[in-house]
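@channel anyone free to eyeball this complex?
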Amino acid sequence: MCDTCGCNLTPGNKHLAFKPVAKGATAVSVLKGLLQKNDDQAGHNREHFDKRGILAINLMSSPGSGKTALLEATLTALKDEFTCAVIEGDLETENDAERIRAKGVQAHQIVTGTACHLDAHLVHDALHHMRLDGVDILFIENVGNLVCPASFDLGQHLNITLLSVTEGDDKPAKYPVMFRAADAMLLTKTDLLAVLDDFDPDKAEAHLRNLANPAPVMRLSARKALGMDAWLTWLREQLAAQRARVAIGQSRRPAIQSDGMKYHSVTA
Amino acid sequence: MHELAVAQALVEQVDAVIDQHGATLARLIRVRIGPLAGVVPELLATAFPLAAAGSRMEHAELEFTHAPIRVRCQTCGAETEAAMNRLICGACGDWHTQIISGDELLLESVELETSPTLAP
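replying in thread with the prediction:
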């Protein structure tokens, strides 16, 4: 939104801007997203990525739905093909970064302390601790949380939301803000479907469509190497698409519509 | 917890507006908020006095405009109201819709008190 030319004033909101007020006072229309500062930083991060032709992917889910396990399997599968790097976000411990480094991949751990999500500034600080030259794909593993991370633009190109089959197929209906933000939804731990009679993958997908989200849904098990091919193929396509965008000086923002990323503060 | 963080961002923005207009303080702050913003107005109202303590908006009234959830259907073109977890077209039932209202978290307007010497 623009504050200088007045283009954020529309016939629909003009009456809000020029309401007469008491003498000695002025009403000022602002109509500005509360998270403008975060969004500006996110745009800067995205420029860093685009300049180097990096595809940046934000992984979000509840804790324990298999983000790190997915990364381990993905990094192993892609190790001869692409150079990957990982930013890990957790409230405490270096555990996840160590798991990634054990795969021979560069990883930086962000320890958020009490903050429930990553924001663009935290990611920017992390980038300064990393070697980005030559990196093809940067994965950002967000703090495990189905609420807050959806609301912050980090500068990524794509949001991936994981839903493990142990969680219940109505999660997209319960957490619409998160699942509306997904560019792809991964149903994980599908090897457990055989012993879980209450998770219906089709229902999970139907709940996602009810959020008007056309994102592809992929079913996989990282541990048992089921369904990984479709995910890896999708990743390759996305990297190719990113390179094509970079070649013509374009970029891409995640799926969130209009003000979707402006929900939380940058200073949490 | 995140409502306090939102309140801090709000104070920061209103502070900037006060500076921009050479005003002395803010009397009324109007925030436009939609259900899909993931911020609860009541919690934000509770957090605001904490974030605003000692600032030039300490005594300002915080007012909310509640934005309804509305979607525009890309298939039939209808604009209808929708529920938070059912963002489908109310006319034809298709899920190929776009949110046109309901996910906002905007600082809409501020009423400022201008100092006597600067008042017209």
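from a first look: The first strand of chain A starts at residue 25 and ends at 33.
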